[in-house]
Amino acid sequence: MSRRVVITGVGVVSPLGVGARLLYDRWSAGETSYANGLAPCSDFDPTEYMSTKEVRRSDRFLQLAVGACHEALEHAGWNGERPYDSERVGCVVGTGIGGMETLEGQHDVLRDKGPERVSPLAVPLMMANAGTAGLAMRHGLQGPTQTSVSACAAGTDAIGAAMRLVRSGDADAVVAGGAEAALTPLSRAAFTAMEALTDSGVSRPFDARRDGFVMGEGAGILVLEEAEAAEARGATILGEVLGYGASADAHHITAPSPEGRGAALAIERALADAGVGPEEIDYVNAHGTSTQLNDRAETEALKAALGEERAKAIPTSSIKSAIGHLLGAAGGVEAAVTVLALNDGKAPPTLGYEEVDEGLDLDYVPDGPRDIGNGGRLVALSNSFGFGGHNGVLCLAVG
Amino acid sequence: MAAPTQEAVEEKVIDAIADLGPERSEITRDASFESLDIDSLDLVEMNQVVDEEFGVQIKGEDAQKLKTVGDAIDFIVARAE
């Protein structure tokens, strides 16, 4: 019998505010948080968590991770003291880009003041593993640490990797998720140049009028623990990571394979890893970016992996309709709210979904939140797909 | 560039260190960098400010010899002269 991996804490900093429950409630109530095609975390103040020196020594993506991690550890009841040997607690934080603000800011310094003025902090702040390193250092986590850098699949890949560290026995607990803070002039220009961002400024996943994603920032962190150890310490179990599946499209640097084959493979692998069949899935937290290509390919992938009839019957929604696309943070935030949704027994809505697009014929829950399940165990998939063709899927359960 | 008087250098160094995190009241001539939690990366940042202001560079072995705020002030004043 392999080791089971449970979730004991979730934490989120999102454009809808600081707090996982806050985000879930606001999304469920139909609130959105973006303007002019951007979704910043305007309510987040890093000085609530960090000293002046710590703030100076961290890029914004790490600061957002620190905020989310603070909530997740508190939620798990780890206040101050770790229930495990430090050397048995790992950390895996995914990000699409890393310290983009630092990179751009220091490039300005290089251009305007010369190379001798570039900060000695530039490298440790901008490196993509600074999120993982920062949380490990802050909380004294000396177990295995990794960083997933798989674009918009990074947060999901991080949780998948973390689950496997616990399952394999390499760690007894892992702090895992995603963080991103890339609302900078360069990255906005770059995403605009590839026509990935919305012109209309509206995030409308799966709707016929969808025209690109709203770029957001944030962080989502989960505390994963080995099930028996968590139960032994009397932890409140929020849910379980049943399985994880990953694949690559091996198709194109940005476009998904048209029939969603790579994504379907990741979904099939997540189900197989979890040991559950399509009939047991109660909810799908879709990647649902609001781009023409993703939402069609993802719909195709769900049909291919779950069977057309079953795929159409499962409530499938995208939180990107509320907060936009948090890139490498998306998978962390979405796993956190999916766990809360399952605890609530509800499928939250895809906000603003009105016009049906031909071939996009799943149940996108425009009328949500809606009750799901029959009172027993609830199981969900959380999908993330990234540029480069990276596909990551988590299978999560509650009850 | 500013004239490197003892007072001018002291003021600039204390300002630069205060920007790095320590409480201003703790930044005295006798305070050690260790007690102020100022490490080698911080010293490079402080040096960038001092270099811009007084044209003095504190590098490598020189930086390693500086243990207190006063050491740094005296070094800069001496080099600037």
Structure, briefly:
The complex is a heterodimer of chains A (399) and B (81). With 399 residues, chain A is α/β, with parallel strands linked by helices.
Please work out how many helical segments of chain B DSSP would assign.
4
pLDDT averaged over residues of chain A: 97
What fraction of the residues of chain B are assigned to beta strands by DSSP? under 5%
CATH class of chain B: Mainly Alpha
The ordered string of helix (H) and strand (E) elements of chain A is EEHEHHEHHHEHEHEEHEHEHHEHHEEEE
How far do the termini of chain B sit from each other?
Answer: 13 Å
Which residues of chain A form runs of ≥5 with pLDDT under 50? Answer: none
Percent helix of chain B, as a range, is 55-70%
**Share in helix of chain A:** 25-40%
Which oligomeric form is depicted?
heterodimer
Give the SSE order of chain B as H and E letters: HHHH
- What composes the largest sheet of chain A? 11 strands, mixed
Name the structural class of chain A.
alpha/beta
Largest sheet of chain B: none
The CATH architecture name of chain B reads Orthogonal Bundle
CATH fold descriptor of chain B: Non-ribosomal Peptide Synthetase Peptidyl Carrier Protein, Chain A
Beta-strand fraction estimate of chain A:
15-25%
Task: Give the arrangement of secondary structure elements.
The complex is a heterodimer of chains A (399) and B (81).
Chain A: E1 5-14, E2 17-18, H1 20-28, E3 38-39, H2 52-56, H3 60-75, E4 89-94, H4 100-113, H5 122-126, H6 130-139, E5 145-146, H7 154-168, E6 173-180, H8 185-193, E7 215-216, E8 218-226, H9 227-232, E9 239-248, H10 261-274, E10 283-285, H11 292-306, H12 308-313, E11 316-317, H13 320-323, H14 330-344, E12 346-347, E13 370-371, E14 378-386, E15 390-398
Parallel strand pairs in A: 3-7, 4-5, 4-6, 10-11, 10-14
Antiparallel strand pairs in A: 1-2, 1-8, 1-9, 6-8, 9-15, 12-13, 14-15
Helix pairs in contact in A: 1-14, 3-6, 7-14, 10-11
Chain B: H1 6-19, H2 40-54, H3 60-65, H4 69-80
Helix pairs in contact in B: 1-2, 1-4
